[in-house]
Write a structure and sequence with these properties.
171 residues, two-stranded antiparallel ribbon, mainly alpha
């Protein structure tokens, strides 16, 4: 029997490697390992894989803002009209907000040519939040408790619907 020579991490030469990257077979330590659904990979292989999926262009960020900011503002205005129906708006607002978020996500997706990146999704979410914030602030400042609650529900449901619809993989 031959004794195997111990492997050391490719990035940390003094640290014993307990794993190998399942992509490039490079020996890696636990600090360098990135857990993926298919096993452990080195950070370089993970970065290379992410570059394949990040396809957005600089214009896409502007398009996301131009769709989500006014869309959120318009939806916030519509929710302001719904606040007059009282308690039953608790049922109606989440449904409308989810539909609004999904609609804005689909418009953004089509205008950007289905290009994607995490930064693009976050930009759309930030633009949506900025567009919905004035409606929430106006209701809160005026003391309209139902209106502020409905605006909060709208912001939560529409923003989450927008983000997950944009970032999810759809065929």
């Amino acid at each position: 029997m031959t004794a195997e020579t111990p492997l050391f991490c490719a990035n940390h030469p003094n640290t014993p490697a307990t794993l190998r990257c399942n992509q490039c077979e490079k020996p890696i330590c636990l600090r360098c390992a990135v857990h993926t659904p298919t096993g452990y990979r080195c950070r370089e292989c993970v970065r290379a894989q992410q570059k394949i999926f990040n396809t957005s262009l600089p214009l896409d960020y502007l398009l996301a803002v131009l769709v989500c900011l006014p869309g959120a503002l318009a939806g916030s205005f519509a929710v302001g009209l719904v606040s007059f129906i009282g308690f039953f708006g608790v049922i109606l607002v989440p449904a409308l907000a989810t539909a609004a978020g999904a609609t804005l996500a689909e418009i953004t997706r089509r205008l950007t040519g289905k290009r994607r990146s995490k930064a693009l999704f976050q930009t759309a979410l930030l633009a949506f939040g900025l567009g919905a914030l004035p409606g929430l602030a106006l209701r809160a400042i005026s003391g309209d408790i139902w209106g502020a609650a409905f605006q909060g529900l709208y912001l939560f449901f529409a923003a989450s619907s927008l983000y997950y619809r944009l970032s999810g993989i759809q065929l």
